[in-house]
Amino acid sequence: MKFSLLFLSMSGSGASDIDPLEFRYRFEFTGGKVSEYIVRLNERTLELISEKKPDLPEWTRLQYRQCPNCPLTPDEYPHCPVAANIAHVVEEHKNTPSTTNADIKILTATRRFAKHAPISDGLSAMLGLQMVASGCPILDKFRPMARTHLPFATHEETMYRILSMYLLAQYFQKQNGEESDWELDGLASLLAEIRDVNRSFCDRLKEVCKKDAILNAMVLLDCYAGITSLELKSRELPRIRNIFDAFLDPRVKPAKLKGST
Fold first, then answer.
1. Average pLDDT over residues 70-96
2. Is 256 among the domain residues?
3. Which of 8, 45, 178, 203 is the most buried (most CB within 10 A)?
4. Residue 13's domain spans which residues?
5. Residue 154: exposed, middle, or buried by beta-carbon count in 10 A (0-12, 13-18, 19+)?
6. Is residue 45 included in any domain, yes or no?
7. Do residues 4 and 27 touch, judged by C-beta distance below 8 A?
């Protein structure tokens, strides 16, 4: 049985003086092979915590297919913080086909998740968590969602969490004396920026990965970033709106139980 325990790194942060948030991902394959990863986040900042790796592969360098909207410079950041933090996962699974199934088990302080599924499903959830906590100036905007990390989420669950996170950010911006975007126009722009990052990162990994498990995991992450402002307002919001009737129409009465008079 193969067992690997990897602590994935954080850019420039020390250990927290309180217990970190831990997410344990375990992949059990047919034949007895097991891969296990512990993702640790600073409880206050949600930054990724771990040991730094001195022997990072060439593809993790910042200028290796650098994202077009990346504001970082190689003088200050020789390595892409996201690439550096997921390098060990990519190297372990770069030859894994996406058709490989596994019993995927995720343990947090409050919940357990389990699913028998293609490995890409579990890798997508884990990589998404690591990427938003790695210190990328673009993906950092989605870091608040790490607090309520939800593996194997449905499309509706993910959109609800994205919208809730963005609107809460607008409230805090207003409290901070800044302009707020209650029309959600900025959310579509943010998703477009994140899509640029996802696409560039796929290009970075295409020359590394001989099989497609990692690449398919990235594609799963990108499926929500393609939502436009028009789609948000014409499709996603109407789909969610009906569950807010109690706020929108004070005349709405509670449904009667069957058999009541």
1. 95
2. no
3. 8
4. 5-243
5. exposed
6. yes
7. no
8 Å CB contact between 163 and 144: no
pTM of the model: 0.85
- Res. 192: pLDDT tops 60: yes
Residues ≥6 apart with Cβ < 8 Å to 43: 16, 18, 19, 20, 21
Dihedral of CA atoms 177, 179, 182, 188 in degrees, nearest 10, equals: -130
Residue 135 has pLDDT above 80, yes or no: yes
**Do the domain assignments include residue 24?**
yes
As a whole number of angstroms, the distance between CA 47 and CA 133 comes to 5
Average pLDDT, the chain: 87
Those residues whose C-beta lies under 8 Å from the C-beta of residue 20, and which sit 6 or more positions away, are 40, 41, 42, 43, 49
* Chain centre distance of CA 255: 38
* DSSP-H helix ranges across 46-184: 81-93, 119-132, 155-175
Residue 109: closest CA among 71, 50, 149: 149
177 in any annotated domain? yes
Say which range, 71-80, 99-108, 228-237, has the weakest mean pLDDT.
228-237
Q: Confidence band (pLDDT; 50, 70, 90) for 51? A: confident
